Fold this protein.
Amino acid sequence: MTEPLVRPKRKNPLRRTQQPLSPQGVRSRTAHGLTAAAAEGRFALQVCLDCNAVIYPPRDACPSCLSPRLPFRDVDRGGTLLAETTVQTSTDPYFRERTPWRVGTVKLDAGPVVVAHLHGDTIEGGRVRLEFKLDKSGSAVAIALPAKDTENMADDPHLREMTCDPKFRRVLITDGRNAVGQAMAKAFSDAGASIVFVGLADAWKPFPGLDALCKIERVEIVPLDVTDTESVTEQAEQNGARVDIIVNTAEHVRSGGVVDRHGLTVAREEMDIRYLGLLRLAQAFGPVLRSRGADGVNSAAAFVNLISVHALMNWPAYGSHSATEAACLSAAQCMRAELRPGGIKVLNVFFGPLETEWFQAVPPPKVAPAALASAVVRALKQGVEDAFVGDVAEDVRQRLAVNPKALEREMTG
Amino acid sequence: MTQDAKYDDRMASATTRKSYDGVVACLPVTIPYRRYSTNSAHWWLGRALRELVTRAGLRPADLDGFAVSSFTVGPDTAVGLTQHFGLSPRWLDHIPFGGASGIVALRRAARAVQAGDAEIVACVAADTNHVDSFRKTLSTFSRFAQDAVYPYGSGGANASFALITKNYMNGCGARREDFAKLCIAQRDNALSIPHALMKKKLTLDEYMSARPIADPIHLFDCVMPCAGAEALLVCREDTAKSLNLPFVRILSTVERHNAFPADPIQVRGGWALDVDELWSMAGLKPADVDFVETYDDYPVIVMMQLEDLGFCKKGEGPDFVRSHSFTNNGTFPHNTSGGQLSVGQAGAAGGSLGLVEAMRQLTAQPLGTPVPDAKTCLVSGFGMINYDRGLSSCAAILARAA
């Protein structure tokens, strides 16, 4: 059984911070089909459209019938661990400092044989379930988990290398003034985060929920205004090296399109709070996050972007807002590339209209802030890179995959 | 029909193959191995070629056939090497098949000579070993290795064979002591080989207490990567006689790739598919050969070869090992120069090590301890862990000329 994690002691300031290294992340283009599945937490392998063979490792022709039609499809993840070994000597610097490292041969019920990382609770000869996870290089790897959940299984050191579990990590919620920020603080506190820093601009201005926010265990209110470069820089200097996960909850939702909304004032505010706010956070906190990617149990792990699903397809009723969200999404893709050398995940959580005042006129289904917050924690525990929360987000994702033009046309309602 | 049944069916309908009568192999050459070399693979190949022409009394231009095997000769191919070495061959082959390349080169060259496409073929295998070249070779060895093996602990071949070894031990009760017996005998055989990298006697105690590399593989189950070259000539019997070169006859050969793909984990090599043809073509039985050179990248593969090549039944490898002795004067002389486990693994040259040693024994010019009255020999090759198993297997039965 997995030994429960021990709360890390205060860091010895004289000790050198371990530099983050990555396992080999190079893959063939076809193999990135697994990366796509792992990014969303799905277990997908190539399935031959002509003979139904399930295929691994990824190929460009079916080894049963030579068909080139080999899309990735979700398949059964159950299998048997045939043989295991513990690598004691590795040629790769990343694994050298992490040995002993267990790997094994898993025969999937679906057919293929997969060489996989092994969770500590798997047993040779026993049943396992395979998952694809993004490792520190950002590419997909298979890990065999015990067939049934075991106690403390999330604390397994191999698994924790591939997830961003908030347990014993320190989190910064950038804006506690809104409902989402408050729900997020509660969810991270419940998930075992050791400190939940919650940013507030103009703390003297009262707002609903302040008392409840302050009562949440391990919450620490800090001054932070994402529209003020100096404020962001100061906060990073103060606590940057103590923050392992950042969740940007700053929002500015206003209805209105691009043609029909008069003037640029609101658009400027949207861009300042959302897009430029993200850039300020990225520039102030990004470098220190990236340098702390291998800093022990509470290493830096993730930067979380909460992005409207309408970043993926403009919703004209909130058209200018959608455009701002699209800018944030593009910046997030860039951040992924820039933070990858530190093994820091950039998690994009896409959601539809929220159950908040700024979507008052929008009919259901809508996403409750608490549901969004628990989805974020779940996504971090799982180690995914893209998550879709709520029915609207899922609807947009699916329709986009089938016919983007139809979706664009239908967005006007 | 199952995959295996389809193979069996194909084998049953295979036509009788032509013999290698009149074609011989001669001039075994080894360029002494070094743990690390600052020289390129080209340098090692060039030295082996020079040794061949010098000892045969030929000019480079007389080599009208050239087969080359190397992992570290990139970005060059065999074509580029002809210009590098000033050769103008009319028959050229590039065989980067690792441990299978030696025998595959031999059988291809033999057919070329037999058909008159070439008169004298130089078969050369060489690799260099720079300080960091082994790691680089591992991480880019194959697409499947890159996509589905190297990111899993980066243990290289050690980890892949550890899984195969563990499964084999679970299945047929092999113990580490059985593998030790093979390794220790090979070390004894290596003690008389001047260029063997490991020439200190190995004890059971040292073997058992060696540090673990990837359980159950420990230090003395692993070959030492190094730089080196092996080479030989293939020509007609009358050519060898006119050059005054002692030669060996090729009684039979087999080659197979990606056999038994439905086995979830490797328990046998392609030999199991081709073993009957190997012996019937040679007109011999397993008990008839005087010594055996197996491919010994890991002792578990040696045990599989003993089973799959017909020396014992499947699953009886451990018993066979327990009831024989494997030194050059033992009941089953095996890997008579110490094999790669003691001499070192010079990349693709490892696939020719046993072949070249067998030629020396059969032509009564061994470097080390001679095998008494060595008349016939089986040599086998194995290579290319593309994903989870070695894909290529081959074997040849050779005989003394007289």
Q: What stands out?
A: The radius of gyration of chain B is 20 Å. The mean pLDDT of chain B is 94. The longest helix of chain B spans residues 41-56. The first strand of chain B starts at residue 23 and ends at 34.
